[in-house]
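User: quick one, fold this
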Amino acid sequence: MISDNMILTSFMASDEYSSKAFEKFKDNRIVIARRLAAQRGINLSDPNNLDADGFPKGYGKNNQSVLMPAFYAAYTGRDAEGVTLGAFRSFPIPAWTVRYSGLMRLESFKNTFRRFSLTHGYRASYALSDFRTNLEYVKNPDQLDQGGNFRNEKLFTNVNLVDQFSPLIRIDAELQNSLSVMGKYVGTAPSLSAWITTISPSLCAENTDWAWVIVSRISALPPASMGTM
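Assistant:
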């Protein structure tokens, strides 16, 4: 697992029926396939080197080498023309947490609050699971499999991208009467997986769970007057 960033697609439109990122994933496949074919020295101007879907022969739309970079580029917002073609990522992208309390410099805030701060946090990760060496590739790297694709050096079960705001925004304040208030807008963005071992890629359903949480607590009260309760 390595830290990554999906902030460019975190707010991309999606629902239970469609997803702009998923459509981009499908479109990216032809771009990745052509890059891989060019890297292998395949003449893409020759129609005989293309399959019925327009993909270079050996790098069809369900080839693992095509699916993984296409998936990664689509959900991280990267350009399929420039994304790394390999499965492994070597450069971690840092997460962040930002806290801002500068509003307390304003006179109106000073008169209302003892303290007031805004916090924003974000983190994402990329992980591969259950991969192994392809012994058929070792025997003959240029041999095509039953699906007409070049064999891959390593076989991966799935690739996972996890994206989370922690939180998107949080308000932490204490009023002049010592009442403390915390408001938090929590964003749980999609946890995405692409299964690579199936002949057709499967993507888990996207669910975005936003919650608004308010927690109020009384940290101090003035002395109570005498009476019965």
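User: anything notable?
Assistant: Residues 2 and 126 are 5 Å apart (CA to CA).
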